[in-house]
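Risk register update: the risk of archive-format incompatibility is retired. Evidence:
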Amino acid sequence: MPAPDFTVTELIDLTRRHFPELAGSELEASPILKGGSDRRYYRLTQAGTPLHLILVSYTDARPDNICFFPATEILQAHGVRVPAVHFHDRQRKLAWIEDLGALDLWALQECPWPERRRLYTRTLEEIARVHRLQPASLPAETLAQLMSGFTEDLYAWEQNYFFDNFAAHFSAASLAAQQSARTSAALTDLRRELGALPTFLVHRDFQSQNVIIRDDQPYLIDYQGLRPGRPEYDVASLLYDPYVTFTLAERNELWSAYQALRSGDDGWETSDRRLAQCAIQRLMQALGAYGHLALNAGKPEFLRHIPRAAATLAEVITHSGVATELLPLLQLRPAPMESATA
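Archived output:
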């Protein structure tokens, strides 16, 4: 069931109730309009002064919403920088969490590369702390509170999500070509190979808008999808982020930095091919998400990300030689933004 649709006045009254020190003070709650989730965020201020509190209203519509809270506990326990949860009103599906500020990696994309490299390297150091956590090292009851891990079936779901929400509406390829690619041995092998690999904890949506920079340090947010999976999926999410532009040299530099971070970790091995495989999966999922959000969730602003995501996916496939059957599907229909919404 969805959460109650609180008015701003009701949210302020509940804030005063849960934080008695704010009783009688002049509070304001300003909506934060960002992202594609069904959660609502409000930045709280007191007489115009930041309270460093964000109020989150969530629903039952997505099973991962409630997973944010056990995920926070796990990450905090292992020294990962994440926002503190100051109060969770489970009955009303409201939470008051630490406001880390509005400066994310995406906002820094125009900075000179040396500055971006430094911050991205620190971000990779932070996610490496997550990736060192193996599911077997967590209590079973703790792991059960997170989302189910990546398996061959989940990779298959991502691939179908791509065909149903992106290819069917935006690709210039024929339906026959789409069906041929959907049932190709290349995609079957991709999901089987990834699904058979050892898993570690992963963020699941590790892109530039989900890393906040505060006091020159990265903090992770929107990690409610935390689950067992392949670390390369997270790294690919960051380095092939459709919201940000990297040169090939910059991307390679960051990938080398991550590999160096993990070189001494027991049981860890990877390859350029593995990164490419995960990048293909991630970009297929992202394109499916953009189509779904634009066509089914009333968020047409996500249409503008489709051309770059499709071009980036084509680049990965061309350079790696993996899943080349997808290349014809990445040619977009003429004026796809207009035809998709007509």
